[in-house]
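Intended use. Records like the one below are meant for learning the mapping from a protein sequence to its folded structure. Do not use them to infer anything beyond what is encoded.
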Amino acid sequence: TGTSAFSSGSLSHECLLAIEEFDETVQDKPWYKRWPMMFQYRVRVLVGNSWFNNILLLAILLNTVTLAMVYEGMSTQLDDALHQANYVFTFLFTAEMVLKIIGLGLWRYITDPWSLFDAAVVAFSLVEVVTELMAKSAGAGGRMTALRWGFCG
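Structure written out for the chain above:
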């Protein structure tokens, strides 16, 4: 996942109001409509921030490095550390996806091709984590990697 919803231009050139200005524009709405709108707008400002996207870009690079570190015959400690890192990255990218869906709205999120790609990668990663945890609880201990699973079986 990554900087998808904004790098493709869907929000990068959009002029956002300051949070205080937005709050003033929804002040006349009933509280049960105003609070969700204010929350969504704050999340939208968060996910549209360049530092948010830069942090996620760094996470993508670090995730790529950890995936490249896997080799046949590596130590158990390294294998465990890489799997723990995979859990962290899966959580981070899932949180990014959820925040972007909240901030942009579902329709805007799913109409961006990069966001759909991000969502597919997150879905495969979540399937990987759940399958791995189920195998561990059943005593099988099997591991797979989402993007390699189809190739290596």
